[in-house]
Write a structure and sequence with these properties.
The chain is an all-alpha fold.
């Protein structure tokens, strides 16, 4: 199948399956094409099944980022909300809350913050994150566990 046809099928599948607009579906599929090119090479963009699977994953991430935060991640609750001015709390996203929590816990390393975003917000598995970052799954699992502990400890202070 041609790459163009695979892209159009993926966009249609997202519009129907996820109920997102055509413009949003186009953006999500563009991200999916980029992921496919980076992970498996540009010759695999025409693989309809692969592209749709990656596009579904990207769509879930897109919807999570776009939607307002209903449940605060990482067991952060009212203490974290108290740190954010009330007007800003209404518009806070999961990423904003994660960044705020990292500041409170003094997690300043860009690599650590990015790792938390990839695993906790974007929903990548430790294996997927390990492939992308060039680290072992066990090392990432342990690193995220330590970072989560730092976030919990900062909350309890």
């Amino acid at each position: 199948m041609s790459a163009r046809r695979a892209i159009l099928k993926a966009q249609q599948a997202l519009e129907i399956g996820f109920g997102i607009s055509a413009i949003d579906a186009e953006d999500v599929v563009s991200e999916a094409v980029l992921v496919v090119c980076l992970k498996w090479g540009p010759q695999h963009v025409g693989n309809s099944a692969l592209l749709r699977a990656v596009a579904r994953h990207e769509a879930r991430s897109f919807i999570r980022r776009r939607s307002k935060l209903k449940e605060v991640p990482l067991d952060l609750d009212l203490e974290l909300q108290a740190e954010i001015p009330p007007a800003a709390a209404d518009y806070a996203t999961a990423e904003d809350l994660l960044l705020q929590a990292c500041r409170i816990a003094r997690i300043e390393s860009e690599a650590d913050v990015s790792l938390l975003k990839i695993v906790l917000l974007d929903g990548f598995s430790y294996a997927e994150a390990g492939k992308a970052l060039g680290a072992s799954e066990d090392a990432l699992r342990q690193r995220v566990s330590r970072l989560r502990r730092r976030l919990r400890d900062a909350r309890e202070e």
